[in-house]
Design a protein that fits this description.
Layout (H helix, E strand, L loop, with lengths): L11 E3 L5 E3 H45 L4 H19 L5 H13 L6 H7 L4 H4 L1
Antiparallel strand pairs: 1-2
Helix pairs in contact: 1-2, 1-3
């Protein structure tokens, strides 16, 4: 039995020694490997972004606390300057609004997040952002 590869048509090749090669099975296995690797990468990226945002929020919140005794505009100027430099260096995602959101995130969860807690609460659809 010999079949010729024809798009999505099932392909099987039987040789004289009764070996049967199933192309569709091989394709399915390869697809499973690719999907699993991709999904693992998305989860790891998501975790890294959550960790990054928490750490940036901590940095900002701690600096703002130190600046509370000074003029209120001084802290705003620092965040505005930081947002501009980070955006220039790394692109979108670091504007003033985002930086304040990261600080709020840290303030809501001041203790370092455990892996299980991070994964259960902060899962984003990284497929759209990567």
């Amino acid at each position: 039995m010999k079949s010729i590869f024809n798009g999505r048509t099932e392909v099987s090749i039987k040789t004289n020694d009764s070996f049967v090669f199933d192309f569709d099975k091989m394709y399915t296995q390869a697809s499973d490997i690719i999907t699993e690797a991709r999904d693992t990468a998305y989860r790891q990226i998501n975790e890294a972004l959550v960790r990054r945002n928490w750490m940036l929020g901590k940095l900002i919140a701690e600096q703002e606390l130190k600046l509370k005794d000074r003029a209120s505009n001084y802290g705003m100027d620092i965040i505005t300057g930081l947002a501009k430099r980070l955006t220039d260096a790394y692109g979108k995602g670091f504007n003033k609004t985002s930086l304040y959101a990261y600080a709020k995130f840290y303030e809501m969860f001041p203790e370092r997040l455990s892996n299980k807690f991070r994964q259960s609460l902060f899962v984003c659809d990284c497929k759209k952002t990567v």
